[in-house]
Amino acid sequence: MLTLKYAFRTLFKSPFVTAVAVLSLGLGIGANAAIFSLFNHMLLRPLPVASPDRLVNLGAPGPKPGSTSCSQAGDCEQVFSYPMFRDLESKQRVFTGIAAHRATSVNLSYQKQTLNGRGMVVSGSYFPLLGISPYMGRLLSPSDDEVIGGHPVAVLSYPFWETRLGADASVLNQQIILNGVSFTVIGIAPKGFEGTTLGLIPQVFVPLSMYQQLRPLAREYENRRSYWLYLFARLKPGVSETQASASLNGLYHPILRDVEAPLQDAMSEQTMQRFKDKDVLLTEGSRGQSSVRRDARLPLILLFSVTGIVLLIACANIANLLLARAANRSMEMAVRLSLGAGRGQLIRQLLTESLILALMGGVVSLIIAQWTLAFIGSVLPTDAAANLPLTIQPSILLFTGAVAVGTGLLFGLFPALHSTRTDLVTTLRSSAGNLSSARSATQFRTSLVTAQIALSMALLISAGLFVRSLVNVSRVELGLNTDHVVTFSISPVLNGYQPARSAALFSRTLEELQATGGVTSVTSSRIPVLAGDNWGNSVRVEGFEATPDTDTGASFNMPGESFFSTLGIPLLAGREFTISDQGTSPRVAIVNEAFARKFNLGRDVVGKRMTSNDSGPLDMQIIGLVKDAKYSEVKDNVPPQFFTPWRQDSTVGGMNFYVRTATEPEQLMRLIPPLMARLDANLPVEDLKSLPQVVKENVFLDQMISTLSAAFAVLATLLAAVGLYGVLAYTVAQRTREFGVRMALGADSGRVQRMVMRQVAMMTLVGGIIGIAGALALGRGAQSLLYGVQGYDMIAILGAAVLLAAVALGAGYLPARRASKVHPMRALRYE
Residue 661: how many CA atoms within 13 Å on its side-chain side? Predict the structure, then answer.
C-alpha cells in the first residue's frame, strides 16, 4: 500500500508530464483495442457451439459445368449440388454428420408487420451437428427435412425475436408468413448464436426441403449440374482430418466417375479427366464459413500492425520520459541504496509507477477505442456496421488490461534497471556535478527516437500509398453517370406473386415513378448495378468458333427500356430496348464493347445472332452496341456483357429501379416508400439509396483503410515529434555547461544551433532510411489492396520524407534555439 501511495505521489508531482504520458498511451492502446475488437470478431472468435475445433468445412474446387450460385458463405469453389450432398451424407462413416445451408432473401410477415430480411435454409442435421440448445421451443431436426415441400416449420433467431417481436413468448406455434408461405414457429435459436456465416445474421431458419417453396422459380433438388449448397461436418472422436479426407474422397470419386461424368456435355478429354480427379477439400471450420473472413484478413492484419506501431512509438515516448525522470532521481536512488534499500525493492517501486501510468492510459484508451469504433461505423455501409461489434465488449476490456500491463512492463523495465544500478560513488558525483547521464541511457534514448522516426516514416509512406490508391479509385471512369439517380428494389416473388402479376407491378411502378414531380427518366434492371452481384452464362455467337475448352462466359443483365440513356451509358450503334420488346416479340440483345472484342465482332455487331443456351438455334438478334461500363465492382475490369430485356423473361421475380431526378435525391427518396405502399402495402422497399452512395459503399474498404491508415500515421508522427522534442530538450539541458564552454571559447549561436540540428538531421536520416525499407516490405505485402499504384511509389515515399523532415526539424528547432541562447557565464556559474 505504501508503494502505491508513493507511486501516485511521485507521478502527480509533475501532473502535466503525467497527463501527456497517459494521453499518449491512451491513444496507442485505444487504437489497438478498437482494431482488435474487429480482428477478434472476424478472424479469431470461434462459433459459440459445442467443440468447434472438431468442425470442418467441405469444398469442391475444380471444373463445375452447369450453373453455380455462391453467396457470402464462400466462393463458388465451395458449393455442392443437392444430390451430391445427400449422397455424401448417407454414405460417409467418418463424421457424426454432414450439414448443408444456404442463405436466401425473405419477406417476413407477422401480425401485420412486413420486412425484407435474410433467411437460412438448413438441413435437418444443421442444429444437431452444432450441438446447441434452443432458447425456447425446439430447433430443426432431421425429421423436419425428410420430404421435399412437406415441413413448413421455422426457427427464429434470437436477435429478430427480441428486437422485432418484442421477445413475445406467445410466438411459439404461431404462423409467420415467409415469401407468401405460412410457416409454424417451433423455436427460438439460442442467444448469441448468429448462424455460421460471418457478416450474415439470419432472421429465420427453415428446412432445406422447403427451399423451393421460398423460391418458387428454383428447380434445384434433382439437378447434379446445379451447385448451390455449402457443407460442413463434425469429425467423429478419434478421426483426424487427414483420415476423414481420404475416406470421403473414396466415396466422392466413384460418384463423379459413374454418375456425374456421363451427364457432362461437350467436355474435352483433359477437362473430363480433371473433373473425375477433383477432390473434396476439408478445411478448419471452427469459425464457420464466410468469404468476409477471407476478404477482411489482410486489411485487418494491416490495420492491427499499424496500430501496433503507434503503440510502440507511444511506449518509446514513455520510456524516454522515465529515463529523463530517472536521471533527475539518480541522487534519490543512490541515497536509498546507500541506506540499505534493496535493488529489487527499488525496481518494484519504479515498475509500480510505470504500471499505474499504463493502467491510467488503459482507462483513457477505452474512450479512444469507443470513438474509433464509432468512426469506423460511420465509414462502413449500414448492413456491414450492423453485423459488427462497434461498442466496448468484454473482450476489449480483457485485451486493454493485458496490453496496459504489458506496455507498463515494456517501457518501465529498462529505466528501472538503469536508475537502480549500484555504482553509488559515480552516481553521487554525477548528481553533485550535474554531469550528463550515463552513456548507455543516452544511446538508448537516441535509439528509441530513431526507431520512432523509422516507424513513423513507414506509416506515412503506407498511408500515402493508400491515399493515392483511394484517389485512383475515386477517379475510375465508371462509364455511367451516377449524379441525381436514386435506386431501390422490390421482390414481389417473395410475397407469392406469380411472374405475370410481378411484371404488371413492375410496369405500374415505372409509370408511377415517371409521373412523380421532378423525375426526368426512369428505368429498371433485374441485376443491380455496382452492388457486387455477378451473374454470368456461357454464350454462343454467330461467327465465333469455340472449342470445348474455350471460355465463352459473359456477364449479363436484364434491363428495361431507357436503361442506357437513364444511366448515361452511350449507345454506339443500333437501338435501346423499348416497351415493344415483349415476350411474344423476337428475342433481342445488346452487347458492350468488351463482349464485341472477346467474340471478335468488331464494330459491326448489329444484326449478328447469339444465344445463351448450350445447344439449339441462335435465337437472339443483337440490336445494339454500348460503351463499356462498370458492372459489379468499381475496381474490376469491365467484363464482356450482354443485355436482354426483362420483359422477354417469364421468370423475373424481383426488380431494381433507377430514377433520375432534377431535384435533390433525398427529396425523391422520401416519396418512394409511400408511393410503393399505395401499390402494395405488404411489399417492402429494399436498398433505397442514391447511386453515388451505392458507388461509395462499393469501395468502402478502400476508404476505411485509407482513412484509418492516414489518421494512425499522423498520430504516430505527432507522437514521434513529441518524443524527439523531449529527447532534444533534455539533451540540451544536460549539455548546458558544454554549450557555455563552447560559446566562451568563441562559438557563435548559429554554430551551436547547427550542432543540435545536425543531431536531428542524423536521427531523421537514419530513421527515414530504415522506415523506407520497412514501408517497401509493407507495400509489397499490401499490394493486392492497392489500386493503380505500386508499393514502391516514389510520390508516396518523397511526400512522406518531406513531411517527416518538416515535422522533425520543427520538433528540433525550439531545443536548438534554446541551446543557442545559452549565456556562457550563466552556464558556468550554474554548473
Answer: 24
pLDDT confidence bin for 434, thresholds 50/70/90: very low
- Tens-digit pLDDT profile for residues 231-273: 999 999 999 999 999 999 999 999 999 998 888 877 778 888 8
Give the separation between CA 253 and CA 794, rounded to whole angstroms.
Answer: 53
CA 673 to chain centre: 31
Helix 82-91 to helix 241-255 angle (10° resolution) is: 120
8 A C-beta contact, residue 110 and residue 177? yes
Identify the pLDDT of residue 551.
Answer: 80
What contacts 610, CB < 8 A, 6 or more positions away? 539, 540, 541, 542, 589, 591, 618, 620, 622, 642
Cell triple for residue 535? 451473374
Evaluated on CA atoms 32, 38, 43, 44, the torsion sign reads: positive
What sign has the CA pseudo-torsion 546, 547, 551, 554?
A: positive
CB burial readout 775-813, b (16+ within 10 A) else e: beebbeebeebbbebebebeebbebbbebbbebbeebbb
- Tens digits of per-residue pLDDT, 664-693? 999 999 999 999 989 988 888 888 999 999
Spatial separation of the C-alpha atoms in residues 639 and 616, rounded to whole Å: 25
Q: For strand 181-188 and strand 175-178, is the pairing parallel, antiparallel, or unpaired?
A: antiparallel
For cell 454506339, what's the residue?
Answer: 572
310, 313, 318, 321 alpha-carbon torsion, rounded to 10°:
-140
Spatial separation of the C-alpha atoms in residues 642 and 218, rounded to whole Å: 23
Per residue in 607-665, pLDDT tens?
Answer: 999 988 767 788 899 999 999 998 888 888 889 999 999 999 878 888 999 999 998 99
Give 791's contacts (C-beta < 8 A, 6+ positions apart): 465, 776, 778, 779, 780, 781, 782, 783
DSSP state of 4: H
Measure Cα distances from 64 to 250, 256, 691 in Å.
19, 11, 35
pLDDT digit string, tens, across residues 371-426 = 888 888 887 777 777 777 788 888 888 889 898 888 888 777 766 666 666 554 45
Alpha carbon 440 to its chain's center: 44
Residue 21 contacts residue 317 (beta carbons within 8 Å): yes
Q: Which residues contact 134 (CB under 8 A, 6 or more apart)?
A: 155, 187, 188, 189, 190
Task: Write the single-letter amino acid at 528.
Answer: P
Give one word for 788, left, alpha or beta, with left for phi > 0 and alpha for psi -120 to 50. left
271-298: pLDDT as tens digits: 888 888 999 999 999 999 988 888 888 8
φ, ψ at 275 (rounded to 5°) = -65, -45
Closest-CA residue to 482 (of 366, 567, 561): 567
The C-alpha atoms of residue 527 and residue 588 are separated, in whole angstroms, by 18
Distance CA 503, CA 707 (A): 44
List phi, psi (to 5°) of 512.
-65, -40
**Which among 565, 536, 569, 559 has a CA at the least distance from the CA of 644?**
559
Q: Is this model's pTM higher than 0.70 or not?
A: yes
Q: Which three cell numbers stand for residue 44?
A: 479469431
What are 109's strand-pairing partners? 114, 177
Strand pairing report for 226-227 and 67-68? parallel
Residues paired with residue 207 on neighbouring β-strands, in sequence order:
122
